[in-house]
């Protein structure tokens, strides 16, 4: 079974500062995918970034980067130059290898980020 | 450019009533899923489908049925609503490929009284 742990229920960051949202995972699979989603107060789920377990480089997407440490089973999201619009709930999720289980995303409980002036 | 469309957006049911949450996607995605989101618990998988005619149970399937007669549609049926099914429901779809993200609908907020 797969498990995602997000230990920070809430975080505050000042505008223009960088922030790291923690995510650790547990799986016996050798191949897996890690995702981060953003959920603003309006409720929709917005995909941010993906990291494959065999990817040698950390994923980056604009101001988002994923600090992937496979031996530690961690996949922390780093947001650089925070903006007020980054205030939202952030979810880390994991997906097992392909085949019949390919749709089975396992989510963490989320971290609520508040960006302040 | 509709993506994943869920209807209705809000619904109030009485205990014991049945209803169907609709989900449609126009991206020709093979994989579709239903999740429920409860406070403090993240999203949990209810049922999923890897193609038309193929469905399987997720983590919390009890009280829900699904079918997938077409690639586009994946309705979720509540057979006899219970207050424990009060939640926000999300439908998601994605194409094949190991690194493809899931696209989510806007969610359906269901209250069972």
Textual characterization of the structure:
The complex is a heterodimer of chains A (117) and B (113). Chain A is an all-beta fold and 117 residues long. Chain A is 0% helix and 50% strand. Chain A has no helices and twelve strands. In chain A, the strands form three sheets. In chain A, strands 2, 5, 6, 10, 11 and 12 form a six-stranded mixed sheet that branches. Chain A has a four-stranded antiparallel sheet with strand order 3-9-8-7, with no helix packed on it. In chain A, 34% of the residues are buried. The mean pLDDT of chain A is 92. Chain B is mostly beta strands and 113 residues long. Helix content of chain B is 0%, strand content 50%. Chain B is built from no helices and eleven strands. Chain B has strands at residues 4-7, 10-13, 19-25, 31-37, 43-51, 54-57, 64-66, 76-78, 87-94, 103-104, 108-112. In chain B, strands 2, 4, 5, 6, 9, 10 and 11 form a seven-stranded mixed sheet that branches. A four-stranded antiparallel sheet of chain B has the order 1-3-8-7, with no helix packed on it. Chain B is globular, with a radius of gyration of 13 Å. Chain B starts with a strand and ends with a strand. The model of chain B has no long low-confidence stretch (mean pLDDT 94). The chains are: A mainly beta (117), B mainly beta (113). Chains A and B meet through strand 5, strand 6 and strand 11 of A and strand 4, strand 5, strand 9 and strand 10 of B.
Notable characteristics:
heterodimer, A: 117 residues, mainly beta, 6-stranded mixed β-sheet, 50% strand, B: 113 residues, 7-stranded mixed β-sheet, 4-stranded antiparallel β-sheet, 0% helix
What percentage of residues of chain B falls in helices of 4 or more residues?
under 10%
Write down the Rg of chain B. 13 Å
Indicate the proportion of strand residues of chain B.
over 45%
Poorly predicted tracts of residues of chain A: none
Total number of beta strands of chain A? 12
Count of helical stretches of chain A: 0
What structural class do you assign from the helix and strand content of chain A?
mainly beta
Instruction: Please trace the helix and strand order of chain B, writing H or E for each element.
Output: EEEEEEEEEEE
Query: What's the main sheet of chain A like?
Result: 6 strands, mixed
| Radius of gyration of chain A, CA atoms, in whole angstroms | 14 Å
User: Which whole number gives the mean pLDDT of chain B?
Assistant: 94
Tell me the total number of β-strands of chain B.
11
- Percentage of helical residues of chain A? under 10%
How far apart lie the N and C ends of chain A?
A: 41 Å
Which structural class is indicated by helix and strand composition of chain B?
mainly beta
Instruction: Extract low-pLDDT stretches of chain B.
Output: none
Biggest interface found: A-B, 25 and 28 residues
**Largest beta sheet of chain B, briefly?**
7 strands, mixed
Question: Which shape of chain B, going by the Cα principal axes?
Answer: globular
Q: What distance lies between the first and last C-alpha atoms of chain B, to the nearest angstrom?
A: 35 Å
Q: Please, how many helices of chain B?
A: 0
């Amino acid at each position: 079974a797969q498990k995602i742990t997000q230990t920070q229920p809430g975080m505050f960051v000042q505008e223009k500062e960088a922030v790291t949202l923690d995510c650790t995972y547990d799986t016996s699979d050798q191949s897996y995918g890690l995702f981060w989603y953003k959920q603003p107060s309006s409720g929709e789920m917005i995909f941010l970034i993906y990291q494959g377990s065999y990817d040698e480089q950390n994923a980056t997407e604009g101001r988002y980067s994923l600090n992937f440490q496979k031996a530690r089973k961690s996949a922390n999201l780093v947001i650089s130059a925070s903006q007020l619009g980054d205030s939202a709930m952030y979810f880390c999720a994991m997906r097992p290898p392909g085949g019949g289980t390919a749709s089975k995303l396992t989510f963490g409980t989320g971290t609520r980020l508040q960006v302040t002036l | 450019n509709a993506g994943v469309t869920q209807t209705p957006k809000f619904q109030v049911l009485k205990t014991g009533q049945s209803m169907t949450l609709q989900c449609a996607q126009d991206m020709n995605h093979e994989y579709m899923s239903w999740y429920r989101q409860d406070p403090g618990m993240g999203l949990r998988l209810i049922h999923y489908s890897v193609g038309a005619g193929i469905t399987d149970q997720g983590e919390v399937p009890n009280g829900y049925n699904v079918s997938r007669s077409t690639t586009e549609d994946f309705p979720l049926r509540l057979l006899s609503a219970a207050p424990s099914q009060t939640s926000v429901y999300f439908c998601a779809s994605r194409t094949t490929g190991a690194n493809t993200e899931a696209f989510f609908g806007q969610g359906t907020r269901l209250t069972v009284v």
